[in-house]
Sequence to fold (585 residues):
Amino acid sequence: MRALRHLNKYFLKYKYRLIIGLVITIIARVFATIVPTLVGDSVDVVEQYINKDITDIAEVKSGLILNILLIAGALLISALFTFLMRQTFIVVSRFIEFDLKNEVFQHYEKLSLNFYKKNRTGDLMNRISEDVSRVRMYVGPAIMYSVNTITLFVVVIGYMISIAPELTLYTVTPLPILSVSIYKLSVAIHKRSTIVQEFLSKLTTFTQESFSGISVIKAYGLESPTQKNFIELSDKSKDKNLDLAKVQALFFPLMVLLIGFSNILVIYIGGKQFIDGTIQDLGVIVEFIIFVNMLTWPVATVGWVSSIVQQAEASQVRINEFLSQEPEITNTVTQKTPITGNINFDNVSFTYDDTNITALKNISFEVKNGETIGIIGKTGSGKSTILDLIGRLYDVSSGEIRIDGVPLKDLNLTNLRESIGYVPQDAFLFSDSIQNNIKFGNENATDDQVYEAAKNAVVHKNIIGFSKGYDTVLGERGITLSGGQKQRVSIARAILKNPPVLLFDDCLSAVDTETEEEILNNLHKISKNKTTFIVSHRVSTAKNANKIIVLEDGKIIQQGSHNQLISTKGYYKDLYLKQLSEKEI
Ligand SMILES: Nc1ncnc2c1ncn2[C@@H]1O[C@H](COP(=O)(O)OP(=O)(O)OP(=O)(O)O)[C@@H](O)[C@H]1O
Fold:
């Protein structure tokens, strides 16, 4: 139960609702327990008439009618309060579920990229959905049924003992057996349903991948083998479902059997006690039969609740495991630190924790505000890593990066990231309209500003060519943009943000050279007072930069302007000549 202590803060937050729930439950149960007593009374009245203790039939009738009215009233009140009981406890559990999901999501967002590399997306999603749902079962139904059971036990057993102590003992003896059996059954059901869930998610992943990669499947004519794999997987899934159905099918028969056994005990022992005179009224036996049936479900829930608590505990352990992880990159500066954009790399080296690859080795360079720097180099030479370090997606292993003379760690992290417009290598667009995708970095932008940014990214004409224009929805629900269109929408997003620092990570690779030229000219105009980084494999993209650095294996092997570099022997000149001849061909 230690892990579940994490939820105490939420119980405290909703304490008033929970206390009200408690009172409501007690009222609901007290009214429910009046009913058997009234039924017992009614039987006694009839018994007295049969035994000629009462001779006036009108008296019997009025007694019975009064009892019927009281029973109806008690049932109505009990039903109303049972409804309110669910409304309080279950509603609180939904609130806590909502709060916990938010807490986990917010924490995920704070965690560094390394965390996302170490953990699978499926696992992250499971903890925020499945695990939180299991925890909700503890804060909602488990607590509600426990309060219900305890109240009912105290009221009912107390009353039963007061009228027939020996009969009570015999009646309740089978109940713990019911409780333990239901517990064992719940554990077995849980085990099997976990396996069913696993197979279900395997099946979902397989189906999702097959549909995402349907063009590859069709192109390679792999429909039949894919179908065979699907049938195998769904066959296994069906077997696991049947296993589960078998144990689930035992639940109600087991309950009915044990209730039946308790009823027989009441009739047998109660009957004997009535014959030998220990019990005076037949009504007591009737009352006890109703009480036993009333107690059955709460007793069964003891077993069920224990297994819910166990599952919630296991889930909360998994949730706490992530919640206890500290973000590697944190904001330690509270005051605002606006940025102009003079960036200085001073002997920076960086090694990725997970792969142990040293991506950057003793990198030093400087870019002033208003300047553009081009970064050229072979694949894997460390170009993207430089951009990631500027946005503090990772912290340097040694050396220092300074912006406006201030070390990155001494800058307010929010201000730093607000000051950067980043266009990644693989443009990522959300399943939303093109308009909203562009506005992602600047939600308050006007339509005209959005169009202006799209024009500068040379994608406006493409967008208005779609029948729904800027309202065109992208992704699974909508159209798929070409690689070059995606890159340009992503560039428009960064331009609209209008930050002092722009980072373009090889984001013109899917754009033809003419359009590239046009975009670069536009960028040149809008980045007059910005610091711009342009990473590329193409000389044409970087050639107009004020300064170009050439990376190889994490080291700067050349730097200078385009003109300086093409007049010096080396990688850049070779690349330039090669790409020039390709263009001529
Ligand atoms: N997230 C990461 N985790 C671990 N290693 C990484 C990660 N990203 C890059 N690397 C490694 O660091 C090195 C530099 O990668 P980087 O992405 O900076 O190169 P690049 O020059 O941008 O390459 P490309 O032109 O192909 O994009 C590579 O060897 C790469 O395998």
Notes: The domain at 3-323 is CATH 1.20.1560.10 (ABC transporter transmembrane region fold). Strands lie at 343-351, 358-367, 372-377, 398-403, 406-407, 420-423, 501-505, 531-536, 547-552, 555-560.
